[in-house]
Write a structure and sequence with these properties.
5-stranded mixed sheet; 4-stranded mixed sheet; alpha+beta; 11 strands
Length: 201
């Protein structure tokens, strides 16, 4: 306790310079210059506290962080959110990709993986109240998946058991919206390209 200050919050303010000088770094303690820089944390506390609140960067800190020649832009944040949406399904047990659609609107999937597939188009009709179904067809075999709609985006989830059952055959898909018995639309269509990869274990 005689190596730390009894006051100071957050904890980076509490270490005395003597403690920092003897902290094990690599094969020895910090150099006097390093220790002086770290001991100066208390003098920087106001500035640091303005950038980090409860361990989270503030909006001002993110806005002014160096990206290229300036801070994060609105486009930067939109791109980061897009990356998050495409990677948030990754878990320890199953890899799920939010959009396996290629440039030709074909589905590229790996047998046994799960996918959350999202389509959107400004040219679609008003889908309010519609029932939307993803239809997978190969000869006389067919799988259907009920899709959900949020605004102008339609999403269908392909489970591992479904993608596993697609292996070894040629499949086509269509995304069908039924607004009424007399009003139906094909929102998207394409081929399903299924790859098999060795499973570990």
């Amino acid at each position: 306790t005689d190596m730390t200050q009894t006051t100071g919050n957050p904890v980076y303010r509490r270490f005395k310079q003597e403690a920092l000088e003897t902290a094990p770094t690599g094969g020895g303690g910090l150099t006097p210059t390093q220790a002086a820089q770290l001991a100066n944390a208390d003098a920087m506390a106001t500035e640091w506290d303005g950038m980090v609140v409860n361990g989270v960067f503030t909006a001002a800190a993110l806005q002014n962080s160096p990206v290229g020649t300036g801070g994060f832009t609105t486009d930067d944040r939109a791109l980061l959110n897009e990356i998050h949406e495409k990677t948030r399904w990754i878990t320890a047990g199953v890899v799920a990709i939010s959009s396996p659609l290629d440039a030709d609107m074909n589905l590229q999937v790996i047998a046994g993986d799960s996918y959350s597939v999202t389509w959107s188009s400004p040219d679609w009709p008003d889908l309010t109240g519609s029932t939307i179904t993803l239809i997978l067809q190969s000869g006389g075999q067919q799988h259907t998946v009920t899709a959900t709609r949020t605004g102008n985006q339609v999403t269908a989830v392909l489970t591992p058991s479904l993608t596993r059952s697609l292996a070894g055959q040629m499949w086509a898909y269509s995304l069908r919206a039924v607004i009424s018995p007399a009003t139906q639309y094909t929102l998207a269509h394409g081929q399903v390209i299924v790859r098999c990869v060795p499973l570990g274990g």
